[in-house]
Amino acid sequence: MASKNQIHVGGVPIGGGAPVAVQTMTKTETADIEATLAQIKRVADAGADLVRCAVPREKDAEALRTIVRESPIPVIADIHFNHTLALKALDAGAHCIRINPGNIGGPEKVAEVVARAKQLDRPMRIGVNSGSLPAHLRELEYSNPVDALVTAAVEFVELMERLDFTNFKVSMKSTSVPNTIASNRQLAERIPYPLHLGITEAGTKWSGSLKSAVGLGTLLADDIGDTIRISLSTFHAEEEVKVAWEILKALRLRRRGPELIACPTCGRLQFDMDTVVAEVEKRLEAYEDPIQVSVLGCAVNGIGEARHADFGITGAKDMGMIYAKGEPLKKVPTAQLVDELFKEIDRYYAAGKQLVRDDASAAEAAQWLSENEDATAMTPERLAALEAAAAEQEAAEAAGQTGESAATPPDAGELNGARLDESVSPVAGRRFTRA
Ligand code: SF4
User: Whole-model pTM above 0.85?
Assistant: First the structure.
């Protein structure tokens, strides 16, 4: 369940039904203002809504004055151990500060930071990490790490509430994906505050992205989580932002830029589709609109699998086809597929997002498709047609309307002229029967 409460970090709403915010962390020395601002610019261009900077020294807190002023997105100061740095970061204008109440020096120090945040009307992030739980929870951490994380988070939330402070979000981070999922599910049931999600020290770009996609994706699919950060071992923070966006786009939680759909290829492939996909992906970077473009290696399943795509190509040995919204547009030599695809996309935008179709070319492409389509393939559409026909038949029989009065179902064993049998398309164990 999405959090009930909403806070604002700079101008970015977090929680309470706001879009899931993407954040990352700079990897530069914060006091190196030029390098830090350059990285912030890159992550903002990649789509970060928020950025966090480490503040381990006074000169980092001091640098925040300039960084906050010149950053295109709100800046969160990341503080550990030293509550005076938290106060200095707030005074320097940080839009939010992240502290771990368990390592900031005790409740009195937390109260001091909270008082300053209240005075300046700034939100905080209360961060709990599996590696730095309060001493009294260490034993519980060994026997039940999920309970330990949730208990620590709830204790910190209660401390904030005793201080009459509710302008905060909460994070519980663990390197364990199952523990992250379980603890956030529990915490989401118990508190109304926004949740920041992340798998801490997730790893390299490859493994870390997958761990994050599984952990954060599971929670986000359950409507848990209001802001996310992907932690990857790379100096290029923008890579974290790209991964975060792919997770949000995959779940249809947010849209940003074009989406490329590409088949995995198989033994039917007869042209260099890898190159085509790479080229399409690169050229799509110039477009901001969230159009969906599909690349299919062959016409084996027609274009039904990508019928929702705004534009697409399906290739073959010498000729391929360009289509839009599941309808053929034109047939072109394989070598010109990409150029022609982008001509059609540009024509669409030039016409004010209207498809410009040449009927003769479309008819020629449709003809090519019918000649190249594998009519024996059991596409989802064909399976659905079979099931619908079988259901209709059953209903008619149940009503005693067999014979000519019932709608005549298509011959389930015959599709587009191809007679299937059990050896070609087994139905044993599936949800339809064949007459
Ligand atoms: S579209 Fe064609 S080439 Fe691509 S995976 Fe499917 S069958 Fe294979």
Answer: no
